[in-house]
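Quick one before lunch.
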Amino acid sequence: MKRVLIAEDEAAIREFEVINLERSGYEVVETDTGEKALEMFDCYNGDFDLAVLDIMLPGIDGIKVCKELRRKSSTIGIILLTAKTQEIDKISGLMFGADDYITKPFSPSELVARVDALYRRVALNMMRLENKFKEEIKFGEFVLNLRNRALKKRGKIIELTQVEFQIMEYFFSNPGTVLSRSQIFHQVWGKSRTGEEKIVDVNIRRLRMKIEDDPSLPKHIITVWGMGYKWEN
Ligand code: CA
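Model of the calcium ion complex:
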């Protein structure tokens, strides 16, 4: 579950955030003061992916909440909400551990796009952190060894390039989940580039040649038309 903590004292804006984020698949915990936000964070044992904090709050402000949350968690994604006149807050907020900010007023699509983008970053970091402590990932007849970066199928080693290994690691960390070409591209290459979809397709084709029994009828790397690819066992 993607869980987000909201601190916003204006009920109408808070409701707007809650409705739009819930509609986009987030579990939302809403609070109207900074104190309560910190309380809720502890109540859930810090189990939040993201926090959306208004800067102007009664009592402790959003910047202080941000600093405190960052002190408690290095992985949580934090977005600050700022009114246009708060330029200085904006800058100092970013220095105190926020990942992004949104200027009020904002549209539902802007809110959701920013939150989604940050969530993807947070989830990716978490995945990398988790994989760091794992020796290998097993799926059916496949074993991906994360230490020596090797893939085995039915005990036989399949030689992978660096890029192919990273794509497999991404698939194995998100089994059954549709991954878009641009998600795969960002995961493996890190930056945007033109022609990114083609580069992904080329590598997927090569991977299929290596791992599928019949590359023309793939059973593991499945094409989801109009969306991307997913790993199936
Ligand atoms: Ca406010």
